[in-house]
Structure formats: structure tokens, C-alpha cells
Specification:
Blueprint lengths: L1 H8 L29 H15 L11
Length: 64
């Protein structure tokens, strides 16, 4: 009985990590560019991903 109850309570995390890389070419001598995408674009990507996978999956955007 206790083992059956414990197996119902226990859960595991299933995780998938997907890397999307953004790059841009910048001419020598051009103004210093530190990023390719804005925080707004990152937030939009997170929102789209969340809509695609549904409410039972946690989506996190991590800047590396």
C-alpha cells in the first residue's frame, strides 16, 4: 500500500533543450553592436514556444 501510494506521489522531469543561435555580420569600423536580438524578441520567442507546447510545459529562455 505504501509503495503504491509513494509511486503515485513521485514524479520526474522530462527536459528537452533546444539552442537557437542568432548571428549577424558587422563591417569593420561600424558602430559597436553587442546583440542581434532585443529583449522584446526574446520575450516573443518565449511566448510563441509556450503557446506551441501548452500550459503543462515550462518554457525558459536563457541567454548564453
Amino acid at each position: 500500500m505504501i509503495n503504491t501510494l509513494w509511486s503515485i506521489i513521485m514524479a520526474k522531469i522530462v527536459e528537452d533543450v533546444i539552442v537557437i543561435k542568432f548571428s549577424s555580420l558587422v563591417k569593420d569600423g561600424a558602430a559597436e553592436q553587442t546583440t542581434c536580438i532585443t529583449e522584446e524578441i526574446q520575450a516573443a520567442l518565449e511566448q510563441v514556444a509556450q503557446e506551441l507546447v501548452g500550459q503543462h510545459v515550462v518554457v525558459e529562455v536563457v541567454t548564453a
